[in-house]
Amino acid sequence: MSLRTEPTADVLVVGAGPTGLLLAGDLAAAGVRVVVLERRAEESNLTRAFAVHARTLEVLDARALAEPLIATGTFLQSLRLFGRTGIDLGTLDTRFAGLLITPQYELEQLLEERALARGAEIRRGARVTGLRQDAEGVDVDVQPAEEGAAPVTLRGRYVVGADGVHSAVRSAIGMPFPGKAVLRSVMLADVRLDVAPGQVPAFNGVAGGFAFIAPFGDGWYRVIAWERGSDLPSDVPVDFDNLKAVTRAAFGTDFGMRDPRWTSRFHSDERQVPRYRDGRVFLAGDAAHVHSPAGGLGMNAGIQDAANLGWKLAAALAGRGDDALLDSYHTERHPVGTQVLRASGALVRTVLASSPATRRLRNTVAAAAFLVPPATHRIARFISGIGIHYPAPPGSHPLTGRRAPDLPLAETDGGPTRLYEALRAGTHVRVLPRGAEPQKEAGVVTVTRADAGSTTLLVRPDGYVEHASDR
Description:
Blueprint: E1 4-14, H1 18-29, E2 34-38, E3 51-52, H2 54-61, H3 66-70, E4 74-76, E5 78-82, E6 85-88, E7 99-101, H4 104-118, E8 121-124, E9 126-133, E10 138-144, E11 152-161, H5 168-172, E12 179-192, E13 202-206, E14 209-215, E15 221-227, H6 240-251, E16 258-272, E17 277-278, E18 281-283, E19 289-290, H7 298-317, H8 323-351, H9 356-369, H10 373-384, H11 419-422, E20 428-432, E21 444-448, E22 456-459, E23 465-469
Parallel strand pairs: 1-2, 1-11, 2-8, 11-18, 20-21
Antiparallel strand pairs: 3-7, 4-7, 5-6, 9-10, 10-11, 12-15, 12-16, 13-14, 14-15, 16-19, 17-18, 20-22, 22-23
C-alpha cells in the first residue's frame, strides 16, 4: 500500500511521556515546528514513576513548572534506602533540597499544557511502523488508530525517539539495546493505608524480596513490591493478598493496606544503547537507557536528556549550531546514563542481599558510611542530580560544565531576581559581577549578580556553565 506523505515538521518527537513532552515544549518555545506522535489513543493514568529529584525540579523551575508540580505531591527531605539507613537531601545547595513524590501523570499534564501552549502538535493514536533517513531529513511511517485509516508518512528534519523501553524508533534504526533483566514480576499498586509508615519513603529488603512505600500526599500511597523467585508475566494481574504478604515480610506489617485503585506488574531491565545519535535520529529517556527502580532515577535522567538535547536541536535548526554541537548530546548524556544504570543497579543488589549475615554486614557498613558527611553529601548530590556535570575542554575554568546554582540577581524593573527565572527565556544567560557594564549580545540574556561573586558566567539554556571567567 502506498503511503500518503504529509507536510514536513522540523522535529518529530515519538512518545508523549515526560521526556518527549518537555522536549516538545522546549522546541516549540524556540519557534521550532514540532509534532509529537504518541501510540496511545487516549491519556492514561497508569504511572510507574513518581519521584522527582532536585535537579529535575530545577529544570522545571527554568520553565516555571516546579511550583505547580510541587503543589500536587509530597515534598520530602530524606530518602530512606533500607532499614534505618537513609540519605539527607535537605542539605543540598538548591532551592529544592529534597525529593518530590507525585504521580507521573501530574507532571505529564503540566508538560503537555506547556507544549500545546507554545505551539506543539500532539497526535495520539499514532503508531510508528518504520522510518528512513537521508541527508536532508527523516521519513516516518505512521499508522493512525482510527479503524480503516490509511497509513501516512511524515517527514521531519530530525526525529527523536522518546518512546520508552520498547521504542519503535530504536528498532527502526537497528540500534542495539544490550543489557539484561534485573527484576522480574515487580508488583505496583496505589492503595490506602490504615497506619502511615513512621518514615517515608519506606524501603526495605529481606531475603525474600523487598517493599517500598511512598505517599502521594492525597491519602494514597504507592507500593512497589518484589518477591524472590516470582517470574509471572507482566500481564498477570497482581494478587493483592500476595502484595500485602510481601510488604509484611519486608516491614513486619502491611500498614492496613486496602482499597487498591490501580495495580500493575512489570519487569525491570538494565540496558543502554551504544549511541544516543544515529544521523538525524536521536534517542532519549527509556528508549536510550533503562534502570532498576532503586533510587527513582530513570524518569529524572530522561527529563534531563530532553533539556540537554532541546536547545541544541533548536540551535542547529536556526543555523547557530553544527554537527559537533549535536554530537555533544551523546558525549554528555551517555556517560550520565551509564552512571545512573550502575548506581541504581548497585543499590538494588545491595538491598536484595540474600543471606542474613550479608544483610547485617550491609546494614553495618551502610550505617557507618552514611555517618561520614562527605560520603553522604556525594551520594545525595548524585542521586538528586545536583552533582552531575559534563566534560570540559582542557584548561577550562573549573566551573565549566558544572550545574549553575540559582544565583540571586540584581533587581531591575520587572526583570528576573534569580538565575533560573532568567533561564525561562530559553536562551543562554550571561551573568556579570555587580558593577559590570552589560553588553548586548544576540541570543543572550544579560543579567547582573546580586551577590559578591566576581566570576562572569555564560550559562546554557539547560542550566550548565558553558564558559566562566574571573577576569
